[in-house]
Amino acid sequence: MASSFDKFQKRRLISSYFSVVLSVFLVLFLLGLLGLFIINSKRLSDNFKEDIVMTVFFKNEANDTIFKAFETEMKSGKFAKDFNFVSKERAAKEHEKTLGENFTEFLGANPLYNSYDIHLKADYVTNKGFSKMESEIRKNPMVADVVYDKQLITLVNDNVNRISMWVLIISGIFAFISILLINSSLRLSIYANRFIIKTMQMVGATKAFIRKPFVTRSIILGIIGSVLAILALIGVLVYISTNYPALDIFKDNLLTILVLLGVLVLGVLITWIGTHFATQRFLNLRTDDLY
Question: Tell me: the pLDDT tens digits for 124-182?
Fold first, then answer.
């Protein structure tokens, strides 16, 4: 009978340990994802902004000398991140693929212009930045037109600011909820040992002596959960880097390492503080209240 009860207690203890490790792992993994998203959010938004194209059309009279001068101006300027020359022949072929027919034969000539597709640096992807760039480009007498999506620029900037604000709010709420969840798991694991705590207290053990093994055990469980969360986060980073190399997810290695170390430290702190207050609660209970 005693052996069966001991096995039951051991299984219950292992189950409580597993629940603590699982809670720490899940919570810290999600918090780590939020942390990685926050430190990479600017790069993600910058990549999205820099995909917006400004197209500069040149008159048919423009020659190679004009194009080279324009390219030199773009390279020396502070606005353009990169640019790409699109000849009117190439533009015609792209239109033919889109339309599914050779419109130049129907018209008897190619009505398109030579052009440049320009991507601005993220800091200048605003209506003001594009307008200033446009005004500078239009000073060139060989420029026929400048085209870009003003509505898209406004939409992108408004959404980026709105998303950043909500990410910070959700991160704060989630961090608070996660601490409560881990604390609940720790209290449940200590609850199973409440009679042992009270017995040790009755034979004269100090609170610090009784608390020490519980705190030590919880910190070890917290470290195990944190390490598992870090390994999972590294796996996510490797997956993103392999499948989406354009995001350059490992560019800020220092910040990434700090987030991963923060996950480890947070796992230790939460389990330490949570166990301290949980054991203190049972230490302050009267014997009758244990039932």
Answer: 888 888 888 888 899 999 999 999 888 888 787 777 667 767 767 776 776 677 667 76
Chain-centroid distance, C-alpha 3: 50
Domains of the chain, first to last: 2-44+178-290 (no CATH), 53-148 (3.30.70.3040)
Q: How far is CA 200 from the centre of its chain?
A: 47
Contact present, 260 and 227 (Cβ < 8 Å)? no
Determine the Cα–Cα distance for residues 28 and 96; give it in Å rounded to an integer.
53
Element (H, E) at 86: strand 80-86
The stretches of 77-126 forming alpha helices (DSSP H) are 88-99, 103-107
Q: Is the pTM of this model over 0.70?
A: no
Cα 233–chain centre separation? 11
| DSSP per residue, 197-256 | HHHHHHTT--HHHHHHHHHHHHHHHHHHHHHHHHHHHHHHHHHHHHH-GGG-TTS-HHHH
Helices vs strands, H then E, count in the chain: 9, 4
Which residues touch 181 (CB under 8 Å, ≥6 apart)?
A: 23, 27
